[in-house]
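Build the 3D complex.
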Amino acid sequence: MSRLTDANVAIAYEIIGRYPRPKSALIPILHLAQEQDGYVAQDSMKHIAELVGVTPAEVFGTASFYEMFKFEPVGKYLLNICGTLSCALMGSEELMHHAEKRLGIKAGSTTPDGLITLEHAECQAACTEAPCLQVNYRYRFKMTPAELDTLIDDLAGGKLADEIPSHGVLAMVRQHIPAERGVGAVAPEEVNESPEWLNGKSAL
Amino acid sequence: MSTTESTSDQVETEVVIDPNAVSLTINGKTVAARKGELIIAAADRTSDFIPRFCYHPRMKPVGMCRQCLVEVEGPRGPMMVVSCMTPVAEGQVVHTETEQVKKAQEGILELLLANHPLDCPVCDKGGECPLQDQAFSHGPGESRYVEEKRHYEKPIAISDLVFLDRERCILCDRCTRFASEVAGDPLISFTHRGNNTQILTFPDEPFASYFSGNTVQICPVGALTAKPYRFKARPWDLEETQSTCTACSVGCATVIQSSRDQVLRFQGHDNDEVNWGWLCDRGRFNFESINSEDRFTTPLVKEGTSLVPTSWSSALETAARTIRLAVSSKGANSVAILGGARLANEDARAWAMLASKLGITLHDAQLDDGLPTEVFNLPQATINDATSATTVILLSPDLKEELPVLYLRLRDAATKNRTRIIEFTTRASGLTRYAWKSLNYEPGTQVAAVNSALNDTEIAGQLSKGNVVVVLGRANLAESSDFTAQAYNAIAAAFPAATVLPVLRRGNIRGAATAGLTAGNNARSILTAASEGHIECLILLGADPLSDVPDLDLARRALAGAHNIIAVDTFPTASTLRADVVLPAAAYAERGGTTTNLEGRVLPLSQKITARGTSRPDWMIATELAEQLGADIGVESIDDLTAIDAPSQTLQVLSVAGSSAPERNSYDLRLVVSRKMYDNAVSTVTSPSLAHLSIGAGIYLNPRDIERIGALVGKDVKVSTSSKSVILTLHADESVLKGTAWVPFNQPGTDIRELMNANDLIVDVRVENLS
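Done.
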C-alpha cells in the first residue's frame, strides 16, 4: 500500500542507529511497516530497502521467511486457532468449525468488514491450556465455542481495544533510546580495544 | 630413514620451507595444497572427482547442497564433512569413495531428486546437466519417493533474458551468490521457507543485471534458462570451439557453440588473467546478430541511387578502379581508411600492408570517440596488475557500461579490500559504490580535480602506499580528450611509477593500432578533409561514422563530400547505405585469427561456422584488392599475417594541447555524453533478445537543476546550444552533478550529436520547457 510515513521514517532511523550496520535493522523495521499498515506492503519493502541499503529482493527474501509477516492485507484481528495435538484432542477442530460458521468465512480468509482473519496455527506452546487460540498473538486459554462467541462479540464491540491492539502492533509501548543515551553503533571490524569488563585480561 | 633421504636433507638445509604449503592424503594419494585451500579444490587436482552442485571455484563456498560429503580421519575415527567448506590441513587423510561416503552421497542425491521433476527429455539442460550426470555417476539409481512432487508455474520470466523453472531448482545458491557476490546486483533471493523455499525477484523488479546470463551458465540444473537458447538445440548436437569475445576490448574467453552451421550459444570460459569465466549479457547474447537476416551476403555496387548485388570480381574491380583513379589523379593522400577495430589482428595487418604499399597515410581505427592511441605507449598495466594494485585511479568511462567484465574484476578487488579505487567522474558510475573516493568534476575541469586530489594529504598518502594503476579512457564524448590527457599527465608527473590500463572500448582497437591502422592521422582530420572535398576515396572498415562520430554534422558532411566510398562491413548501417561499393565481410565466428585485448594480450579468435553468403574475411578482401591494384602484399593465407609485434616505443606522458575549458554561464548545463551497455550498436540492434533493452534517448539532470528550470520530469524539454536545439525527454538523476546534464549516447530517439561540434572543447546546453 504505502511507504513509511515521515513519523515512522524517524523511528526507522532511530532503530538503524542501534546497529553497527543499517541492514541489521531490517526485521525491526519490517515490524514497523506491519504496524503501520497491518501488513507489509510492497512499497514499504522498497522503502525499507532504501533505508537500510539493500535491494527490495533481499528485503522480500528475509521477510518472507517469517510466517508472522503478512504480504496481503489481513483483518484488524488475526485469530489463530491452534490445531496441534493437545488442542486437537481437546476440541480445537470443533472450535474452528464453530468459528468458521460464526464468522461466515473459511480458515485463511478475512471477514468482509475487515475485522477478523481466521487462521489455523501450529502449536502455540500452551498445551496445558488446550484448546487455545491467539488474537493478534494474545492468548485465550481453554476456549469453548461459547467463549469464542463472546470473544468475537467483544472484538466487534471494541471492548478489548485496551488489551489487544490492531494487527501489526507488537507492543503498546515503544522502546525509545535517546541518541545521547545510546552507546553508539560501532562496526565489529572497527572495534580496536577490548571491552571494559575484560579489564585487560585475555578473552580465553 | 633411507640413506638417500638423509643425504637430501643435508643438501637442502638451506631451503626455506614454505609456511603455506600443506600436504594431505586423498584416497591414499599425497596431494600438495596451499593453506586455506578447500578439500574439494585440492581433490580437483587429482583424478578423484567429488560430486558437487553448489561449489563454484570463483565464489565463496556455502555448503548448501551437501553433495560433496567426504570422510576425513580424525582422532575419533572417520568423520563426514562437506569438502567444499573444510580447509585442508597438514597430514589430513581424506576418503572420497568409501561405502559410507557413497551411502551419504546417494542419500543426498535421492533427496535432491525427491522434488526435481524428471522432465529431462524436454529440459534444455539435459545432456549437460550436473544433476543428471551426477545422478548417474553418484546416485542410487532409483527413488523411494512416490508422493506427489512440488508444483510451480513453469517457467516464469525473471528478466527479459532469463527464465526460471522453480520445480527444477535444487536451491544451490549459485545464482543468488553470483548476483550478490560477483555482479553486485542482488536482485534475486531465496524467499519463503522450508518446502516452499524458492528463488524469486521482488514482485515488480526483474533480475535486470548486465551479467544475468552467467547465472544460466552456472545453474547446475535446468532451472535457469536463457531466452536466446531455449529449445534451440540439444547439448550433444553442439560443436564447440574456444574463442575470444570482441564485443568490447576486455577479451573475455568464450566458447562458441554451433549446430548445423549456425551459432547457437556463447559460453564463458575461465581465463584466470581476464574474465574468470564470466561474460556480460551483451557479449553472451549478441551471437544472435551473426544469424541476422539483415547481413550483407553478396557484394553490392551503386547503380544510380541504389545498391545492387554483383559478383566479387566486378565489385573488387570497381573498388580497385576507384582507388587507382584516386591515387593517380590526386595522390595517395586522397584515399583514407576509417575503422579496423572490428577486424582480427591478421585482417588489420593485411589492410595496413595494403595502405603502406599504396602510400595511404590517412587512417584511423577510432572515430574521434576514444583517446589518442599513444595511451598504448605509456607504461602498461595488465588487468591483474590493476586488481592487485594498492590504488586504482579511474579516469575512465563507466566501466560497468563499456567494459563490463573489467568492472567485475575491479569490483572484486575493491570489495575484498585488496585495492582502493579513486574515481574521477561526472556522475555515479557502476564502481562508485565500491570506490574509496569518488570525486566529481565538471567536464573540462578534471586537471583541477586531479591536482586538488593529489594535494589532499589523505589521498596522497594512499597513493604513496604502493603501486598505482591508472585506468584511462574517454569518459565524455562531449568534451575534448585533451582534458583527460592533461589529467593523466598530472598524475604521471606526481607518481612516475604509475602504470596505465588503457580502456579504449572498441573490440580490437589495440590490435588495429599495433598493426598500424591508427598511425599518422586521426579520424577528425580525415573527416574534415572529406567534408572539404579532398578525399576521393573513403574506405570504411566496419566503421559507421554516421552513427559513431560524436560530431554528427561533420560525419554527414564528410560522407557527402567523399567522392567515393568503399564499405567493408557485415551489416547495412547508415554509412554503408552511402557507399558506392559494399564488400561483405565474414562475421565473428566465421573467421579465425587473433585479437588483442586492452592489455595487449594476443588471444585466439576461432572460426566455427561457414561465412554467410559469399562474405569473406577482411584479410582476404585486402589481399584480393591488393592483387587487383597490382600492389602485391605477399599474402597467400592467414598464416602469412601472423606476426610478433615489435615492442613499441615507450612514452611517459601524453602529448597535450594544453586547452582549458571556458567558464560556464550559470544558466547553462555542461553536457556529458557517454555510453550505456545497450545502445544502437549494430550487433545489439540485430540481436532480437537485446534490441529492446536500450534505455532510449533522454536527458538526465540533477533534481535541483530541474527545480531551478521549472521543468517536469517525464516531459519533453528543449535542449539547445547557441546554434542548434533538440527535444529530449527529461529525467531526474541524483547522481548527475549539479550544473551538468547527462545524455546517453547512440540511443533510439533524438540524436544528441546534433548539438556536438568536434572543435568545441566542451558543450554547454540550455534546458527549457517547451512552450
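The helical segments of chain A are 6-16, 26-37, 42-52, 56-63, 85-89, 92-103, 145-156.
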